[in-house]
């Protein structure tokens, strides 16, 4: 049986009211309160989303934003932003377990967006062209997608070869094998002024 203190009940009620009113977050005063609020919010999520959120809290600490349908971390683990969603896949046409979005600063050259379509929507470029984000079920798959996106942007890889490379690396990873493309980012994330 779950027992909440009066303070936890008030924080959960405030978050629910704020969510209904369109507010993004409710500030919690202490780490204990923030942890409690985050756990309260994710307790209503699906099991895969809960497990992902708990793993990210263990890895990155408490989220910077706690919303009813997502947790967000800023500038953690080499990422500009990490977002885990409750139920909605972070990309159109994504599977139900594709709840993790991770972003880096990277100036995408003009015209590279067409080649990035080879990644099937797994990678997005910000409107200003200064950020790349990937969406999948895991950090490894996001690193794979971003590394391939940068290869395409640098014209180091033919976009037509990317789907096969992605699928093969994902299958090898599922079989317990490793690829440098999945273990770390093979480029240095940094925002520079694009030639747009």
Q: What would you call the structural class? A: alpha+beta
Element-level helix/strand string? HHHEEEEHEEHHH
Helices, by number, come to 7
Shape designation: globular
Q: Would you identify the regions where 5 or more consecutive residues have pLDDT less than 50?
A: 1-6, 192-196
Instruction: Report the radius of gyration as a whole number of Å.
Output: 18 Å
The side-by-side strand order for the widest beta sheet comes to 1-2-3-4-6-5
Helix content: 25-40%
Give the end-to-end Cα distance, rounded to a whole number of Å: 57 Å
Instruction: Report the β-strand fraction as a percent range.
Output: 15-25%
Biggest beta-sheet profile? 6 strands, antiparallel
How would you state the average pLDDT, rounded? 85
Count of domain modules: 2
Quantity of strands, as a count: 6
Structure report:
The chain has 196 residues and is of the alpha+beta class. The chain has 2 domains: 1-68, no CATH class; 89-196, no CATH class. Helices cover 40% and strands 16% of the residues. It contains 7 helices and 6 strands. It has a 6-stranded antiparallel β-sheet, with helices on one face. The termini are far apart.
Quick overview:
This protein has 196 residues and is an alpha+beta fold. The protein contains 7 helices and 6 strands, in the order αααββββαββααα.
